[in-house]
């Protein structure tokens, strides 16, 4: 559990919603807050989202531009409506979601009954104020990608603005594979920017990372980049075998690791059995010595005599 916590950066945001009973908007938004370098925002439907009985509540990526900078599926979050009379009675729901391409955010349409909030004796609505908390946990690997990819933008062949660090990598592959440019000619500028930014991120990853240094988090980040890149329908026939070979190395490394673990298990088993055998040999020698002494003391001549019986 401690290792899992170490893999994430977490933060909590508290939203005080005043004049709750007077909110007229269908959907009401909090201010933007930041966790792990990414922007977030809470929204509520004070009269329910296609339901009149429940409060609906969601978490959104507060700035869609951060999604193109490496945000992966590894986001844990919880939303809480605080009980202002007894903290232990607060309503909290947690989940684990992928925020890519989810403009509506993730959350809970039936978070809690509105009747519970409106019942002043319950403690969720005090002085017409509702308190909502969001706890967000972002994987450290995603933060590293965000840090690496934040840089100056430069025009790329009139198709869009791309990060400066990716420009020479893209120039190189587009020179060798002109179909990358050709297949994007009829796409929108924003689409092309996203496509080549994602390709640049992948090329940068392959150019700077070493297989020996990749841990599970690194392989998952590569998997995420590749899956995202495939959605843009670029001509990647030239790159696919190489990326698959990296995953093949991961699979082989996994197999080698499992075999190493099996060898260690058998080695320990052999040691244990040798210890048992050594103990058995000691017992054998001890019993053998007792037997030899007993044989020496036993008078075998009595065995051949008639047993007989006493007369008096």
TrEMBL record:
PANTHER family: MATH DOMAIN-CONTAINING PROTEIN, TRAF-LIKE SUPERFAMILY PROTEIN. Coiled coil: none annotated. It comes from Rubus argutus. Keywords: Coiled coil. Residues 10-136 form the MATH domain. The lineage of its organism: Eukaryota, Viridiplantae, Streptophyta, Embryophyta, Tracheophyta. This is MATH domain-containing protein. InterPro entries: MATH/TRAF_dom, MCC, TRAF-like.
């Amino acid at each position: 559990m401690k290792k899992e916590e170490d893999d994430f950066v977490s933060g909590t945001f508290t939203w005080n919603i005043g004049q709750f009973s007077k909110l007229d908007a269908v959907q009401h938004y909090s201010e933007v807050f930041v966790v792990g370098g990414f922007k977030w925002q809470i929204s509520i439907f004070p009269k329910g989202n296609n339901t009149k009985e429940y409060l609906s509540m969601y978490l959104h990526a507060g700035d869609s531009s951060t999604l193109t900078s490496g945000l992966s599926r590894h986001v844990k979050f919880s939303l809480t409506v605080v009980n202002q009379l007894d903290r232990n009675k607060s309503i909290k729901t947690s989940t684990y979601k992928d925020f890519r391409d989810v403009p509506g955010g993730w959350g809970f349409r039936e978070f809690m009954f509105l009747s519970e909030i409106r019942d002043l004796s319950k403690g969720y609505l005090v002085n017409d104020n509702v308190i909502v908390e969001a706890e967000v946990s972002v994987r450290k690997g995603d933060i590293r990608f965000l840090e690496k990819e934040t840089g100056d933008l430069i025009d790329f062949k009139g198709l869009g603005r791309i990060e400066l660090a990716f420009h020479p990598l893209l120039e190189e592959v587009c020179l060798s594979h002109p179909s990358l440019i050709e297949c994007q000619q009829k796409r929108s500028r924003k689409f092309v920017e996203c496509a080549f930014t994602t390709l640049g991120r992948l090329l940068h990853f392959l150019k700077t990372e070493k297989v020996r240094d990749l841990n599970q988090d690194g392989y998952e980040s590569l998997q995420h980049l590749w899956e995202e890149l495939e959605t843009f329908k670029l001509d990647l026939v030239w790159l696919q075998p190489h990326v698959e070979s990296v995953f093949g190395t991961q699979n082989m490394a996994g197999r080698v690791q499992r075999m190493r673990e099996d060898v260690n298990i058998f080695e320990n088993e052999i040691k244990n059995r040798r210890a048992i055998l050594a103990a058995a040999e000691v017992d054998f020698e001890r019993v053998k010595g007792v037997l030899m002494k007993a044989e020496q003391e036993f008078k075998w001549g009595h065995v051949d005599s008639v047993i007989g019986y006493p007369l008096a």
